[in-house]
């Protein structure tokens, strides 16, 4: 699976199962993710790509600048109101 920075993914395994997360980077074979709450932008979570489901949603640059904007965008997605591209 190919992931891009700024793409929204859904966790398929772990404590964060079924939550939407934002791809912020890559660390070897792992994907770095944040949600703006438990995992802020400055402390991303490393996750195996096999445990992620890709979505077709990519957030705009302004929605990925602060933890607050990431939380707002991901909460809207979780509630069914897409604010992606």
Characterise this structure:
This protein is an alpha+beta fold and 85 residues long. 14% of the residues lie in helices and 33% in strands. A five-stranded antiparallel β-sheet has the order 4-3-2-1-5, with helices on one face.
Shape: globular
Order of helices and strands: EEEEEH
The strand order across the widest sheet is: 4-3-2-1-5
Helix content: 10-25%
Largest sheet: 5 strands, antiparallel
- Give the rounded overall mean pLDDT: 90
Whole-angstrom Rg: 11 Å
How much strand content do the residues show?
25-35%
Distance between the termini: 20 Å
Poorly predicted tracts of residues: none
Beta strand count: 5
The tally of helices reads 1
The helix-and-strand class reads alpha+beta
Throw out a few tags for this protein:
85 residues; alpha+beta; 5 strands
Summarize the structure.
The chain has 85 residues and is of the alpha+beta class.
């Amino acid at each position: 699976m190919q992931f891009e920075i700024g793409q929204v993914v859904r966790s398929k395994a772990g404590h964060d199962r079924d939550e939407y997360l934002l791809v912020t980077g890559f660390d070897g074979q792992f994907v770095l993710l944040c949600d703006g709450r438990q995992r802020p932008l400055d402390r991303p979570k490393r996750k195996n790509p096999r445990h992620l489901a890709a979505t077709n949603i990519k957030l705009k640059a302004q929605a990925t600048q602060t933890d607050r904007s990431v939380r707002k965008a991901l909460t809207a997605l979780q509630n069914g109101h897409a604010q992606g591209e």
